[in-house]
UniProtKB/TrEMBL annotation, chain A:
This is Peptide/nickel transport system substrate-binding protein. Belongs to the bacterial solute-binding protein 5 family. Residues 74-425 form the Solute-binding protein family domain. Its main location: other. The keyword Membrane does not apply. GO terms for cellular component: ATP-binding cassette (ABC) transporter complex; periplasmic space. Pfam families: SBP_bac_5 (PF00496). It comes from the Archaea. It is found in: Cell envelope. Keywords: Signal, Transport. GO terms for biological process: peptide transport. CDD domains: PBP2_NikA_DppA_OppA_like_3. GO terms for molecular function: peptide transmembrane transporter activity.
From TrEMBL, chain B:
It is a multi-pass membrane protein. This is Peptide/nickel transport system permease protein. Keywords: Cell membrane, Membrane, Transmembrane, Transmembrane helix, Transport. PANTHER family: D,D-DIPEPTIDE TRANSPORT SYSTEM PERMEASE PROTEIN DDPC-RELATED, OLIGOPEPTIDE TRANSPORT SYSTEM PERMEASE PROTEIN APPC. Its main location: membrane. It is found in: Cell membrane. One of its GO terms (cellular component) is plasma membrane. It comes from Halorientalis persicus. It comes from the Archaea. The lineage of its organism: Archaea, Methanobacteriati, Methanobacteriota, Stenosarchaea group, Halobacteria. GO terms for biological process: transmembrane transport. Belongs to the binding-protein-dependent transport system permease family. OppBC subfamily. Residues 90-279 form the ABC transmembrane type-1 domain. It holds the Pfam family BPD_transp_1.
Amino acid sequence: MIELTRRQKLSGLGAGITGLGGYWAISGTGGKEDVFTVGSPWTPDSRDPVVNGWLWRRISVLEPLLTVDYDATVAPGLATDWRMVDDETWEFDLREGVTFHDGTELTAKTVLPSLRRAFDSSSLASVPVKSIETADNRTLTMKTDEPFSPLPAHCTRGSTCLVSPTAIADDRSVSEPIGTGPFQFESWNQGSSITASANSDYHGENASIETLVYEGITDDQTRRLKLENDELDMARILPNETVDSLELRDDITAHTYQIPRARYLVFDLDSSPFADRRVRRAVMHAVDRETIVENLLNGLGSPAVGPFPSDVTDWAADNLEPYEHDPGRARDLLAEAGWEPNGTGRTRDGDPLSVSIWTYDTRPLLPTIAQVIQTQLGEVGFEVDIEVMESSTIKERATNGSFDAVLWSNSVLWYPDPDRLSDFVHSETATMFSGYENETVDRLLEEARRTTDRDERFGRYAEVQHILQRDLPIGWLTYYTNVVATRAGVEAYRPHPIESCYHLENVTDQQ
Amino acid sequence: MSGPAADTGVRQESDQRDEWTEVIPADRLAQVGLGIILILLVLAVFGPIVSPYDPATQDLSSRLEAPSLTHPLGTDQLGRDVLTRLLHGARLSLGIALAVTSVRLVVGTAVGLVAGYAGGWIDEALMRLVDTLLAFPGIVLALVIAGILGPSLVNVMLALSVVGWASYARLVRSSVLSVREREFVTVARLLGHTRTHVTARHLIPNVVAPVVVLATLDIGGVILGTAGLSFLGLGAQPPTPEWGTMLASGRTYLRQAWWLVNAPGVCIMFTVFGFNLLGDSLRDTLSPTQSAQMEQL
């Protein structure tokens, strides 16, 4: 017991010092030559493109058939051109003069194993690709089960990144990321870091950085400290509050840019009180999103109107009517729905108007925002509990049972096609758990998937957005602004809205 | 088992009473520990009454303000007064610690008495259960239990109670084993007293002292455990002002607002320190002869 006791005493001190702990910067390693180090919250867990391709793509080791432009549209990649031949057939022209890092030439034949493997995998299961064939040495033909206009957008996804046929074993496993990018894989520590070197045979302009080190650092304070300590040249996804103090420093530049990601409330449409649309509307009128942006997000970002931020993408519907902050209107709506004031709260037939908001803390601001919403909803008579859980637990519990509301954050355009809305509200394919069922919405989404005409598609997606604004299965709260900071001397960095690639091959580092 | 010092572990109730009064003034460290605990108790009881602020009321216009005369420990990310939240947190932490320790003490003592007095297969079964519990690192087991039950303060208390009683059972059983063979117990039984009477009159008084010492030492651990589990998000839910939760949510603002993490951190440290000082001194002073026995816990 004595020993345990001493340990207890020590760990008691330890807990107290935790507060002070992070305060002292981690000791620097210093002295680095031509090495560019970037720190991000995501750890490299696999070398398989189907699993972790998005990460290898971000650091430009792997490349997919198509890429995403800075205006969030599909752009040429390893395929220079693509077209729909008939309703269910697509052709892709491959780029000339591309070799994989192992010297294999990129031809229709050599990309086939990698591409087939990707579209057979579970991560692309929702994409109805029937077959992939070679038309000739430079042309690929892809057939789909049904007319599917988002196909090019799915061909930009990290999991479709192409690896050399030599990297694919007989059992179709991939052991090394041999791609075509401006950087080639050197070594890695699974779960923590990757080292890559410039690829002198790159088909585009060669990178100026010679050695690229990627570090997966989960904790944002650690990323920040490492940047300040010159252990990182670039720290990604820093908390909004850091911008002010980082900007005071001469040796660090902070980049802020809006991304198509939103924070939103998913309502359970199958249980009281949010089965009633008036109650959902009351929530949206009660929440002051301006205040959240101004105070909690440090003015970075903007209140959300619909799913898509119009600053980032053209797919945002015009004239969506925002829900203004209007507690009076919220109270009226609640009274209309039968929730009458009773003491500090409200009741209907003796039931109190009490709801529970579930959220998670891997996005650190969510629990804080939940507390502001709790207070603001309290002002119009809701009694709100907050439960902070693992996001996977929430997903499981909300999918299988009833809940009230979930505060969630997700990309609304992580592949550059508005068909992403299906993931939110299509009655059958939605992964968000509101339980929303609307035949018109389903029909519009399906029609828009079948046509390639942009205007026709836009019309349908706009209509869906207008219906959603009325029905409110999901209440959009705020959009996201990312903060990326670089050391002085890092130049020509241009943040990408979808972040599918950091494009570090364009970046120069003077120091 | 209790080892060579087991027999000397027996003493009469009256002896202990004398020692209790002598212990505390005698030991400087105990005085310090007791002082810290008393100050905390006073703060926990009266602090929230005196404070002009509410621990949950937000004031977004004055968020992350540095310590000043209006907010002696600054404000947090939602503009709430940190000192007020700490004081409310003190109530929570001390309350939980006392509750959990009491549960541990009662359950552990009961199991220990039954095992020690009944012996045989009951003893065997109970002690193997205790062994199993002791073999697990307590905090890890608590983490699993709290994780399964879902995040809430009540579940954390449950989890900590479930994992912590085993050492009490161990201690009580070994004391009982040594006492039950003594003449006065045998005489009591020969006189026809019931088992309940023997237990209440002769066994319990003889195990009280070490159990109280253990409990004092344990309180610090419970406070740490609660804060730790809450820090990991398994305990108090926002906006409850629990120290561990405050520490966790303040961590995001470490560089901008040092007071957010340091204030609850220092509170946890002093509280645990206080209880451990008192517990250590009690153990050393209360019964030097029992020290050897206590060492084995």
